[in-house]
Amino acid sequence: MGDCIQLFEDYVNKILEGNNIKVPKYKIIGNAEEAKSAYADIGKEVVIKPIGIKGRGKLGLVYTAKTKEEAADATKQLLDKISNNANNAKATIIIEEKINAKKEFYLAVAIDTSLSKPFIIISSSGGINIEEVSANDPDSIVRVPVDITVGINKDEIAKSLLRVSAEQNDSFLNIISNAYSIFRKYDAELVEINPLILTNNNEFVAVDVIMNINDDSLPRQKEISEYIKQHDERSAIVRDMASMGWSYVELDGDIGIISSGAGLCMSTLDLMKLYGGNPANFLDMAQVDGNGLYKALDMMSKNQNIKAILIHLVAGLNDCGLMAEGIKKFVEERNPNIKIVTRIVGNNEEVGDKVLRSINIENIHSMDKAVEKVVEVSRNDNINR
Amino acid sequence: MTILIGKDTKVVIQGMTGTAGKAHTRTMLDFGTNIVAGTKPNASNESVYDIPVFSTVKEAIEKRGANTSIVLVPAQFAKNAALEAINAGIKLVVIAPEHVPIQDTMEIIENARKKGCTIIGPNTAGVIAPNVKCKVGFVPNRYYTPGSIGIASRSGTLLYEFGNRLTSEGLGQSTCVGVGGDSIVGTRMADVVKLFEEDFETKATLLIGEVGGTQEEEVAELVAKGIVRKPIVAYLVGKSAPKDKRMGHAGAIMLQGKETIESKIRILKNANIEVADTMQDALKFLRKYVNQ
Q1: Which of A186, B16, B224, B229 has a C-alpha 20 to 30 A away from that of A156?
Q2: Is the confidence metric ipTM above 0.85 for this complex?
């Protein structure tokens, strides 16, 4: 299943500007000096914040400044805070014009997965408390489904708009229409503008925008693919796994799991936890062959935390014998000191059993027993150390 | 009787001549599926296992009476293939590939709604009905045997795993449906459960669910309202899965606190659906209903 990728806001700003939605004046800055000159360009009151750090407001990482000295000072403080936290070492800082609001709205183009339709969501109560608003006063939020084969129905949305807003509805309608175009053009799963500010000059400005892209669309979204390549902050192992087309999530345990199919992999994790084991990862290899298994073992053996590996595969069309050959090759070439437990069943499993036996692995046909075994092996290993 | 597929199913395989297309065609034929045609772009007098390959689905319908299709083309081409089948008048389209862009899926589903076509998938291992020896998909044949348990699964590999376990313990199946692993699918678990309710061969349903989405909750609602009365056993995975990426606030606004694994289990149990902690428990629960 596809994952969604959240784009950084400087890039989102560019997309919005290019599609006729106004955003605050902004600049990317690297130090306090740059903050001063950026302040001169942007002027009066500015907001300084790091890009790509979740919950930055609550972490106290969003500053405002009214002079260039304040801007420089805030930038310095922000950089200090960031460099004190190794996780955020690469954060980029954005400085933008503070927009004063006559009114704050919420606008999103999202997907309702239960109805399989895009939805326009509009509320007159924009801002950080929108989730509470939705829980406490659901009527203040308007949701309009969209027939994706037709596009948005402006008349229908105009009627719905009357429930949340009484002014500037023509330009509001244009913003909605542009947001939907962006959603379609970039294969987004979400375009969320919160708040969408109506200024005292009766202009709409998109102040904080979240845009998530469906990664299954990347083969045709060349520009975004390129952007993602340049902003890839994943660890080497995660990147290597992804480059193979595998779905990999690192966890904090000590038992590596090599599996195929998200369902089988998740059920393996669940059972492992039930038996008291600690999974080190989730790995769904999708299509598996011997070569792929060799590579997966190679990548996984670089994780120092792993004490045992469970290879759990149910072969539908692929061949247990060929998969076992990949394991054999790895074991013979590397002589790893990680214990390997296997449950490889399905097509040609008798041949797989034989190949594994030749490297002293007794392939376990029962899932429950295989998981129990790998948990036991990982524990014994703990005692030995 | 079976659901979705049956004795009258005549299959056209879209993308029959590719490696996967050929291999899947073989196992479907071996199981007994009536495959009447295949398609590929610019076909000229070709055949696979003596089955004619045409350039269009329309020809497969006109010349061979196809009424069901399975899409075995790469994900990026799945939308065009599915729309071709829908527009040609196919009534059931199984979309196998994983990684179909989500907006393509929405387009496929919306078009199918307008034409009265049923979509299974995307990202599905397909549908198998052992009682009539019909398979439109690629689950391993030997894991399934005739019987009275219906399965609706979001996971392909767990559909294999459960088929294997049920069959080796003598618990046969009526129809097994892989609804697909994507967040948006054409036929949802609730749709499948409703079909099983009308199917006299099905005595109980096994629901193989996952963290995320609201499909399991929809089934619980059908049971709570008394629309579905046949017994359902649920097995859910993802108890230890890392939390899904949150989709901004919009996700929360639309879901209102649903779709965590804990809430799913609670909602199913409140509807008196048995939720099995392990696969073995699921088999134990199911045995009660089919051995009556």
Answers
A1: A186
A2: yes
